[in-house]
Design goal:
Blueprint: H1 3-21, H2 26-30, H3 52-55, H4 57-75, E1 90-92, H5 101-110, E2 118-120, H6 125-132, H7 137-146, H8 158-168, E3 174-182, E4 196-204
Parallel strand pairs: 1-2
Antiparallel strand pairs: 3-4
Helix pairs in contact: 5-7
């Protein structure tokens, strides 16, 4: 390559890799380690104590790298040993920070066969949409659609409530309406029925 092109490429790579070559990520990711993703199929529980709100992009990068390694591991053919494989759960709190729409969409469509259930927790659907941006909204929708069981708690976010309502489905219901009143015109001729009237009816909603 031309020297200028080469320098530009190396500069970009160094900037991207700098998170891993120095600081808190160097030791756990770029030096000797006894951790390999295969451990999850031997009953290991792996907790990533790298909070995004404290470590910012460093914590996010570390967790995304390890999540990707986990996903690639359980997708391998030798991990699909049926009942002989210990299930490995991918569990993410504040999951909107850790979704990679391309990788997750593919992983969630095949993870059942790999006995790898996924639990994503977040405050609202809007949190996913906000992190993804407009271009990735359709992919985020596909990721959320692949999460088969959804649990909703007390929710103040309108788009989330509307989404939940549409997931539950709708049916036609009969609603009864009743009313009654009294004629206040005083005494009526005998041939006119009494001054009280009632009404009852049904409508579909």
């Amino acid at each position: 390559l031309a020297e200028k092109t080469r320098r530009n490429i190396l500069s970009i790579i160094k900037e991207e890799m700098d998170l891993f070559l120095s600081g808190p990520l160097r030791r756990p990711i770029c030096t000797d380690t006894n951790f390999v993703p295969e451990l999850v199929h031997h009953g290991a529980i792996v907790l990533l104590d790298m909070p995004v709100l404290q470590l910012n992009e460093v914590g996010l990068a570390a967790q995304m790298v390890l999540k990707y390694c986990f996903q690639k591991r359980v997708e391998r053919s030798d991990a699909r040993g049926g009942d002989t494989v210990i299930p490995a759960v991918l569990w993410c709190d504040e999951a909107q920070y850790f979704i990679d729409p391309e990788v997750d969409m593919r992983f969630l469509s095949t993870s059942r066969a790999a006995r790898a259930p996924t639990v994503y927790m977040s405050q609202s659907k809007s949190a996913f949409d906000g992190e993804a941006g407009d271009k990735a909204k359709s992919k985020i929708a596909a990721v959320l659609a692949n999460l088969g069981t959804k649990v909703f708690h007390s929710q103040s976010d309108h788009p989330t409530r509307e989404w939940a309502s549409n997931l539950f489905g709708k049916e036609v219901q009969l609603r009864m309406n009743t009313s009654e009143g009294t004629n206040s015109m005083g005494a009526l001729p005998a041939w006119i029925p009494g001054g009280e009237n009632e009404y009852a009816g049904f409508n579909e909603q």
